[in-house]
Automatic annotation (TrEMBL):
<dbReference type="InterPro" id="IPR045540">
    <property type="entry name" value="YegS/DAGK_C"/>
</dbReference>
<protein>
    <recommendedName>
        <fullName>YegS/DAGK C-terminal domain-containing protein</fullName>
    </recommendedName>
</protein>
<dbReference type="InterPro" id="IPR016064">
    <property type="entry name" value="NAD/diacylglycerol_kinase_sf"/>
</dbReference>
<dbReference type="Pfam" id="PF19279">
    <property type="entry name" value="YegS_C"/>
</dbReference>
<feature type="domain" description="YegS/DAGK C-terminal">
    <location>
        <begin position="73"/>
        <end position="199"/>
    </location>
</feature>
Length: 201
């Protein structure tokens, strides 16, 4: 329906944000459109999974602020690695999502990933000077997609402190997965939720 285009240090990242009420005034209208077999703007059958109305309900917008605010208790023992551990603590508070991943238009397809953390970024510049991907040494125009396929609990954070001390989760954490690609498609298959009586995808 609409898209936000981000120009990130020379690489164009396109993120599609589909909002239910841009096409349908009510949930009932959306259900009726599905029942009637109506097509979306791409000519495909309308699906509830496409409509990410207020998808930022479980987003990462507030994570960075919480990391900076809450990591002080770890700094005396872990130093800079405290930010890595606090990041995982903040992520452990997020609900899990079920995702499908399509890399380079079908070259790699991974279905039903259960994760609290999935990022798509330019590995050379995505970390503001810090290398987020072990493969992103040069700016070759490729995207990096990373995810942790393990549900992180607060008690499980102690398992990753050694990995953080040794140089970062991307190198030493067994559940960290990363790929490089020209195109990345992420499909959120999670169960619909509601907040204040309003249904969200």
């Amino acid at each position: 329906v609409t898209a936000l285009n981000y120009l990130v240090k020379g690489h164009l990242i396109k993120t599609d944000l589909n909002k239910v009420l841009l096409d349908y005034e009510t949930e009932q209208e959306l259900d009726q459109a599905i029942a009637e077999g109506k097509k979306n703007h791409k000519g495909q059958p309308v699906s509830k999974y496409e409509h990410l109305y207020y998808s930022c309900i479980n987003s990462s917008f507030c994570i960075l602020a919480n990391i900076s605010k809450n990591c002080a208790w770890l700094k005396s023992t872990l130093g800079q690695a405290s930010y890595v551990v606090q990041t995982m603590i903040e992520l452990s508070r997020k609900r899990k999502e079920t995702m499908d991943l399509d890399i380079d238009e079908g070259r790699i397809k991974i279905s039903n990933i259960t994760t609290q953390k999935m990022c798509v970024f330019n590995g050379k510049f995505g970390g503001g000077g810090f290398l987020l991907s072990p493969l992103g040494v040069i700016n070759d125009g490729l995207l990096d997609v990373s995810y942790v396929n393990r549900i992180i609990s607060s008690m499980g954070i102690i398992d990753i402190t050694k990995q953080a001390e040794n140089g970062g989760l991307q190198n030493y954490y067994d559940f960290y997965n990363t790929y490089r690609a020209k195109t990345v498609k992420v499909i959120n298959k999670s169960k619909r939720v509601s907040k204040s009586g309003e249904e969200l995808a």
